[in-house]
## 1
Amino acid sequence: MASEAEQIIKHGWLFMVANVVNRAAGLLLLPLYTKVLSPAQFGVYSLISVVGDILAVMLMIGMINAFTVVYFEHPDEAGRRRVVGTTMIGLWSATLGLLALAWPVGLGISEALFGNGGEAAVVAVAFASIAFSTVFELALAYYRVHRRSGTCLMISIGKAGGLLVLNLLFVWWLDWGVAGIFLANGITFVALGVLLTVAILAANGVSFSFGILKRVGMLGLPFMPQTLLDIGNQFVLRYLLNILMGIAAVGVLSFGMRLATLLYMFLTASFLQIWSVARIEAQHRAADRDQAEFVFYFFIVLLTAAALGMALISPEILWLIASPDYAPVLACMPLLVLTYTLHGVRMHPEVALVKTKRVGVLPLISLGGIAVGTALAALLIGPLGVLGAAIGVVGRELFMLVATELVCRRLCPQELPLHPGQVLGVLVPAAIAYAVSLELFGHAVDPAYVAAKVGLTMLAAIAAVFGPGFSRTDRAILFRMVGRVLRRPQPAA
């Protein structure tokens, strides 16, 4: 058991580093995009990316998740090699099919989104790059099931390096704009996709089974509706904003959402990989359930503090990485970071539904979220502009949180419910801290203000821990943990 634990720890931290490297490229490129691209160009990039993501989900049909399941269904190496060959060949066939349709589909989507065919070539290149990115993701899934964490890290470094170098060449040096972004992505993913496919098929042989392909497809299909609706949420709002205010407004909102998404990428996603497993393991042990609940609310405190900090220093972030044309996003940032904080809170009932296999209701909740968010945005964009769209975003997430919790209480009565008082006990101090900062500093950029904003963030977190944000049991667990750390013997000098 100790050896297995050591292996999990060894590979786990390497996979974490690989994920950070994967995401770091997008983070490092954001200042380049916002300095070089106007809000209108960034809006074009955002709309095309969302449409491409929808096509990628349809192309993958949940294949990566299904691949892992089907791979381990075969105990023999020969069967597993057939799974690898079949999935790879099936995905390549779909990728080449999409590639053949890239130009006519690109022309049609350019006409639908922008009213002319002027962006057809850009859309076609974007679809080609997104298609080949799915091959890259499948290759990573293959190396993950083999616990080749070092290989995954090296591949991620290669991807990040390729994206950075080619984006600097095409976007900054040659000034090719949005086309340069998708061309850099395309070249990187084509090169990696071909190299990794050759390496994987050389190790496993070229084999194909219609039965295995059908099994992968049937297992993958249930993952599609929820993912498509989540991406559809983003597309509908951007498309509505484009119609009512123009593509530049789409660029401004997309920039703010790109920043707010970092909360999910670096905090929520990593937390869920650990906490969801712990919650499932603790379902029959009351003490462990208390521990899991403490960890969740402690995470909400950290997530809220990070969201508050991002909202407070958004003027400094804008000054550092973007042009003044993106300034209207500042009014939206508290709502956008609140959205991703509420998304983290929503994981409490959603994990319970997943654990009890009641996931069939989740697409319906997402569909309701689209309706609520779109209705709010349609009503408010006219009088409030981009801020109205941001209200639509947070309204959608609030609806989905409330609906998921109510459904969970109905379908999963044995699960611990979410405590609204504790959630509000975390959020209210953060809201007060933001209001104080806005009153004292506004959106001015001054190094002296940054220290004060950090202090306000820390005060809000302390108020959450020692106020209603933490229960008496939570504080007792926290103090015991701190006490053990303080009593831990220090190594001799």
Note: The chain is about 85% helix and 0% strand.
## 2
Amino acid sequence: MNQFPLLKGNNNRSKQTMSQKVTMLVVFSSLFVFILTTISYSLLWKINEFTGLGLSIDIDYGLKNETESLKNVTESLKDQTCLRNDTENLRYSLRNNGTENLRYSLRNERDNMVSKPLKKCDIFSGEWVPNPEAPYYTNTTCWEIHEHQNCMKYGRPDSEFMKWRWKPNECELPIFNPFHFLEIMRGKSMAFIGDSIGRNHMQSMICLLSRAEWPVDVSYTDDFSFKRWQYSNYNFTMATFWSPYLVRAEQVDSKGDLINIYLDEFDEKWTAQIKEFDYVIINGGQWFLRPIVFYEKQKIVGCQYCSWENVTHLTWHSGYGKAFRTAYKAIVNLGNSKVVTILRTYAPSHFENGVWDKGGNCIRTKPFKSNETRLEGYNLELHTIQLEEFKRAEKKAMKRGLKFMLLDTTQAMLLRPDGHPNNYGHWPQENMTLANDCVHWCLPGPIDTMADFLLETLKREGFTSFPKKDFI
């Protein structure tokens, strides 16, 4: 006989209540585990942003396991009519809110991995500011430094000229990242076309990229004016093409004192080969200030500094613009939409106390501030003509689907009279034509900043190292 008859019914209800509590505990435990797992994978993805580990597959796999686990719990409770609808609603909510929100969040995190360009500002207007972390290589760690630009080897006593960076007025310009640049250039090629400043620029790039990889010489000639370098791990090739006038040119005499340039004819040393390149960087300037005979349609149209009878005296202004026009025409006529043309504007020289062959030198040891000098005279004229021809060519190129980009580095380089070799590009006893070099740039030195400009411009133009499509 039951000693507690009033508790018999309560005992049945207690069992039912206990069963419901256990059921609810199982559901909420599973939900808690799912939420905790989701948060954990989100944190792991944050770590992945810095470590580069590919966790997207693991995340999907983890989500799949958690969803399957929750599905099993739900199936086991289907006989509980009172909970079935709630469980199905919970599954729907998790699938459409939890998982989808996580996927959306991961897509946003993936997009943030892509190196973003700076906010829009004029990166070419600014000042030089101290950078104690520079230089990023030395004349002993980089073997691709031309002897005449190896200033430290030849005894330059100061080193502060290597410790500056360019600061735009309204934003920051990131220091060149060799790994990011090589990722952007993976499977591509870049040609530097023009005078020895272009070669100076490419040698600077090789030294800066050496932190990531050294290239292999794949040149088809021993002539250092036509070198090719390949970065095997990235399948990226850089090449230089010596073409100081950008058009066909030939020496009139053995001394090279007078040059014939054919303003309407392509220089096939580079125009016949650029179709295979993805990026073409053009520069030119200093050589147009020399004695020149100008030709058009195979006839002499004028002469600069030659004093020939019955020959019209022409200054470099007309020939300079026409040479760039012909160079751009050669590129546009290719009809190859993959070629991106980049104009790197004129880099001023800094002779003081005389011209280059009359004792001129460049002995300053600090940059100018922007209010201490200005672009004027032939430096201004060269720069103006370059921009005019670039804009004219860009309009034609756009109609054919071609991309033109501008590296307007003239102002930045104008402020660096301290960055030239001067007399530290050779030993004192050597007899050099250019005894004091105030045209080229020491390596390391200010010309390394052209890499900062180049990478940032590529990013602004949408060239990135990551695909834009969603990864989920």
Note: Residues 1-18, 43-115, 466-472 have pLDDT under 50 and may be disordered.
## 3
Amino acid sequence: MWDKKMGIKHRWEFKAEVTSRGDAEQQHRQSSIFGPAGLQPLFTDFSTRFTVSRMAADWLGSVVSINCGLTLGVYQGEVSSVDGASQTISLKQPYHNGVRCPVPEVTFSAMDIKELKFLDIQNTVSKPSSRHGSTTEPDFISAGHHTQSNRTSHSHATTSRLHSITAPISIPRRGSSNSRGVTVPSQKRNCVRNGGSGGSVRSKDEECFGDGTNEDLDTDFDFEGNLALFDKAAIFSQIDGSNGHKAQHHSTQTELKPQSYRHDENILEGKPVVYKQITVPQHGGKDYCTDAGLVVPSIPYKLHKRLLETAERWGLTLERRLEMIGVCSSQMALSLLGGPNRLTPKNAHQRPAVVVLCGPHTQGAHGISCGRHLANHEVDVVLFLPSFVKMEDSVTSEVRLYSRTSGLLVASVRELPASPVDLVINCLDGHENPLLKEQSWYQSAADWANRNRAPVLSIDPPVSEQPPTVEAKWTLSVGLPLPLAENESRLYLCDVGIPKLVYLEVGISYHSPFGCKFVIPLHPA
């Protein structure tokens, strides 16, 4: 293009294609600062270099954002100097990636600059003399306003009309309470307020983000003082209405109403709860309580035996009782083995292993029934029962039914698993014959159970003053608990379906403590 004022012809070659008006403005500003940065002159002379330096000096004091790529990052600051010969630009009070730099000034080379954006342009240019005389007028160009200038200057930028574009305003991050970032000087704002060019179209962003609003940020907000101004009682009175009767009614209801209710508490008041609902004619010496707080007394073995015999006379036969105990004990064992987390179709390769140790008595029949139900639930069951010439009919019938399952039946301790199993169910002890503990098969089975590191569940163990031969972690009693010895075993109670009037017939006033379950835990009262 031609510069009519200087009389010099410049020919410029664009490195990149300018695709929009905003890109043209940015390219124009960058070329006006550096000259060759972005636009390459094919020939220059002294007057051209003097013009470029005059154009670069016009941008001093402007706030710019310089992108130096991923390695160096983005810098922001006020232009302090521009050297066209060495192709460098310096920024004072710089910010690096939003953080205040420790040095007061940073100098950049044109080769390192990827992108240069103007955030706040303050350009005061002395207009050349026109036909009617020369005048000097300050010009304020702010991002966000669309203005047009018809001034004529020595610079290449002012030879055509300038249309400012909408550019994002980048606010530096506050490094400390005293740092405000790069702000517009107050002298420039006064120029806008006092009627200078552009004063009538003052930016709303300056009103929002000016220095005047930042002064209050150093003062901490008084949360306690503002919270004390809130009168909760007055607000509730306004919500309830202006009538004093409504406000008094609300206050009365607030005092009477409890603060909160649990998920198992009723809002409506009922009758007082009686926790001791079971009374026995002969007390066993120990009391237990359920999770709900109901008291369950223990009974001696003679009363317990008479209760079961009375139930058999009314139709609750031994076969029915064995089935109920087998179902309840197997359900408890399945829960101890992991329940639905362990017994899933996707976990078929890790089926639990259970060993059931049984003796030739009714308690042994309880264990055989439990093993049968566990085998039906895809549990690997090994049933130990020593060989006897004559056994009770209940044991024989349970063994015959168990033989139709996939479980194993062994008669020797040497056939038991050598590795630890998941659970051991102990049914070796009987109520009627305590001399079984002296036999060799009993001692061998008890030693194997103690050597194996698996937890033990005992079903209906007898009352004994001596410590148990096999240490059990859980104990399951039937109907009502017996006064068992104090140990670390956790006691559970099983419901076998004895009617209430059957309890009453033996002198026991009974109310079921089971609730919705058939097996409940008992705790020492």
Note: The chain has three domains: 2-214, 235-270, 287-342+350-524.
## 4
Amino acid sequence: MKIGYLDCFAGMSSSRFIGALVDAGVPQEILHDALQALDVGARLDLMRIKRNGIETTKAHISLTSKDTDLESIPYYELPIFVDKYSAPEDLQLLSTIIALISNANLSEKAKDLAINCFTYLAVAEAQVRALPIEEIYFHKIRALNTVVTVVLCCTGCDWLNIDQWYASPLNVGSGMLKYPQGSLPVPTPATLQLLGDETPIISSGPQKELLTSTCAALIKALNVCFSPCPPLCIDRVGYGAGRIEYDNLPNFLRLCIGHVTDGRKHNIDNNVVITQAEFTNLQPEQIEILQQELYQKEAQLVYIMPIFTTNQVTHKLVIVSLPEFATSIRHHLFSQIALHTVHWRTEHYEGLTHYDELVLSPWGKIKVQVGQLLDNKIISVIPDLQTCQSVAQKHDLHPDQISKTVKRLFLTAKNSYYKE
């Protein structure tokens, strides 16, 4: 299982994330191809620089069509959101941004991640402003820069093909941000809204915004887990440098990529989206084709249940998928079936880490299957049933006696707590 770990001791920005992705092995060509697919006149420059003596990669985005170096402009001159009374040429709607991303020649996973990121961002801003999402406007130039950085981040994540993302507690920074409408505290209300009540945060270092709302949305779209990271073998490490150097904080993002040790397969605490729709008048062969198409859209499970009423039979379609694929699945349903509504909800699931070990017993080596939680607590130890039965028959013992002895020997060796 491939794990990505974001070490956010100095917070996180999209440019630092891009630098860390490249430093960790994402080919530059992949990102330049994504820029060409967007076709918005943006340029990506990557530089090797040192931060606190550590070799890092710094990513710089510029909009050549506007002849504007976005990183040289103070943040408050380019707020990500503006009100509806701003100049019309500065306004950009969420629907326009989604259309731009959808029409680009990008992978479906990268598109879905990017669209989810902007949707989360707009919804959070609407919630803290107590406005309908239709009245949330992005600043056109800032939004274009954000589209570029978000798409590059999502493209890099797609190329890495991480099974599960983890992160350290997030350093959000402190101080105040100046906007044309006034000042806001760090972290901004939208950032806190995006992080929710299960994300651990800290505030350390300079009085700056260290975690942007864009990255808070990216973290949510990537379904980053903040529970203890499973034991890893580190394959690659990437360092993405920020624009400013601080005296008391190394301004870079560290990305560790590794795999679960001992070949163990981890089923971790995670979210899935349950999508449901009801339909009539589909032939069996049409239903079979639809199921195949949904699996190609990365659905994990697709099944259909008949609903019998007095006059007709209606079918309920149920689809289980990871959150990053739910949007494309819903869009596919609307495009293939005559539907009025599609319902979906998010559910939690948790599984155990399962791996096999050999236990040296008085009757020789016996294999056991071990079930372990993310905090390394052992929950179950199951000796191989056929081996226990064979040993019991050979030595005139009961299989349960063999099983209990093997469990006890294993747990004594591991020095773990286990409740019978």
Note: The domain at 354-414 is CATH 3.10.20.300 (Ubiquitin-like (UB roll)).
